[in-house]
Design a protein that fits this description.
By secondary structure, this protein is an alpha/beta fold. It has 18 helices and twelve strands. The longest helix is centred in the last third of the chain and has 18 residues. The radius of gyration is 25 Å and the shape is globular. The two termini are about 45 Å apart.
Length: about 425
Amino acid sequence: MTKRQLEEFYISLREYGLKDITCPTSWPEAFRLLRQLIEKQDNEDKKVVFLDEMPWMDTPRSGFVTAFEHFWNGWASSRPDLLLIVCGSATSWMEDTLLHNKGGLYGRVTYHLKLAPFSLHECEEFLKYKKIELDRYDIVQSYMAIGGIPYYLNYFRAGFSLAQNIDRLFFVQNAPLREEFDRLFASLFGNSDDSKAIVKLLASRRYGYNRKEISEKLNKTSGGTLTQILTALTVSDFITSFIPLDKKKERYYKLTDNFCLFYLNFIEKKGINDESFWQHSALSPAIASWQGFAFEEVCFAHTLQIKAALGIAGIQTNISSLIITKDENQSGMQIDMLIDRADRVINLCEIKYCNEEFVINKHYEEKLRQRVERIRELTKNRRNIHLTLITTFGLHYNEFSGRIQKTINMNDLFA
C-alpha cells in the first residue's frame, strides 16, 4: 500500500514540474522532494499543497505522520506563502491525529471544516440542479432512506419515481449501494467489525442503549477501546449521544444514520431478492413501521429548523428522546422528542409521519394528556410543558386537537 501511494505522490510531483527525480522509497524522502518542488517555484505567489484522503497514507509502519510532522514543523509552517490543506473521510483519524494531537502536531490546525450531510433544503436544490422531479414528500422519503449524502443522491436518475430510484440503488442486480454498508465501515474504521456490531445493536432499540448495556450485550469491557469506538462513531455522525430527562447523568447512544437504519432493516435483515421490492411493497406494514422511525431521525437531523419554527433559535436547549418504563403503578410510554429549554419550557414533541393531515381522536388526546402529566412529575412542576406536533402535512383541527400548542410541518424542515 505504501509503495503504491509513494508512486502516486511521485507522479504528482512530476506533473507539477519536478522532473529529474526517482520515485521516493519512504515518506521522509517524499516530503523532501515536495520541499524541493516548492523551493523551485520560490516567489511571493501563494502556493497551495492539497493532500486528499490523508488517513490512508498513514498505513502501519509507514512513518507517514512522523515525516509529515517534520515537514510541517521543520520547514513549511514558517513560510507565509504556503497554504496546506488536508482532507480525509475517516473522521476519527482526522480528529485524533490532527485536531486532538498531543505530539508534534498539537495546535497546528488553523481552520477546521467538517462537511456535514445535505439538509432537506440542500437535497431539494441538488435534485433541481439534476433536473430530477420529486416533490417534498418524496424528498423526505429519500432522506429517510439515504440521509443527506450527496454521493448517494447522485445515483438518482431523472424520469424515475422515488420507488424506482430506490430499487435501482438497493434491490436490482448489482445495485450500487447493496454492498455499501460493509464497504463504508471498512473504509472508515480500523476496527470495522466492532463498529458494525455497535451500530447493529443500537439499531435494535429506537431510543438506544447506555454504555453499560452496550458493554454487556456485546461482551466487551467498558474501557478505553469502547470509548474510542463510540467516540469515532459519534464524530462520524453515525450515532448520537444524549442524556434523557429522567436519567440525570446517564448518557445514552442512539443510531441516527438513516442509511444504516434502512440497510439493516431491508437489506441485511430480510435478504430480499425482488428487484422491484420498493415498488411492490410501498404500502406494506414493514415499510410503514420503518417510516415512523426513519422520519424521527430526519427530524433529529433538522433540529435547527425545528427550533427556528418554534421561534427559539437563540435559546440554549437539550434535545433528547425519552422512554419511561412500565412500573407497578403506571404504564410505560415513549416520547419522540423533548426540547428542554433554558427559558423553563419543555417542548414535548410528537413526531408523526403521514400522507395527509394528522388526526387526533379522543383516545390519542388522552394519551397526550397522560404524557404531559408524566413529564410534569419528572420535572416536579418546574417546567412549562408545550405539546408540539411535528408531522408531514400538518394537523387536522377538530374537538381533540386543542392540546397541541404548536404544529411544525414538512415545509418547516426545508427552511
